[in-house]
Amino acid sequence: MERDGVDSLQHELTVASELAVEAGRRILRYLEGALEVGHKARGEVVTPADRESDRLIRHGLAAAFPADAIFSEETADSPERLANSRVWIVDPLDGTSNFIARGDEFSVSIGLALDGKPAVGVVYNPTRGELFAGATGLGVTLNGVDARVSDAGEIASARFSVSRKEVAALSGLLPCRELAPISSMAYKLARVAAGMEDGVLSKKRRKEWGSCAGAALVQAAGGRVTLLDGAEIRFNRVEPLQPLGMVAAGPALHALLLAALRPLLAQQE
User: Which of 14, 71, 215, 244 has its CA 20 to 30 A from that of 87?
Assistant: First the structure.
């Protein structure tokens, strides 16, 4: 049966939510003892928790949606996904460094892109027990309670989340109330979708795996998420890194952020 319309996305949302929660439960078990830490070819850290979460999610999605493509950070890429209009984009453990440090900001991120557009997003923070779930036309919930982006309309009184590595570079550009350093891009975007922060920004080019689900959540919650130049973010691209950094917020604040961040954009050109 085809599942192309918005009306069909509740099933996708339910399956992704159940998988994210189960993956989170298994991830937490690894914190009960010593952590085994390895490194990928590019030097990025990886743990058995990343890989078990990846297997669980891939197998669950493949069983529920056998015709869909799956693009996961912990599995070798296949160019066949580029021809598929439905692609699950997964980071089985976003914020692995925070997980290794036994922090509480890592997350499981499961997104679905339809024709390159983020349509379904589930982000689960297992340590804090926070499940963000949403889809186009269905809105967003946090632990089952309806949520939306904030209605902030001024940068000066707004609270933004950023990567800890970007706080110093961004603090001079935004005369805001607070720049909150938070790990996991997926978690940052999810928090914005739920109104827990007013916006999120990054000067870094972000990978699809940790941003697809969060982008879907922000949009489903009534917000906007774009590249730094205001261009629409597309997924299921050949290159997993987005061409520019990104910004997400409610509609009014998003427009102000783009204007304020023009100097940052000029640095990337």
Answer: 244
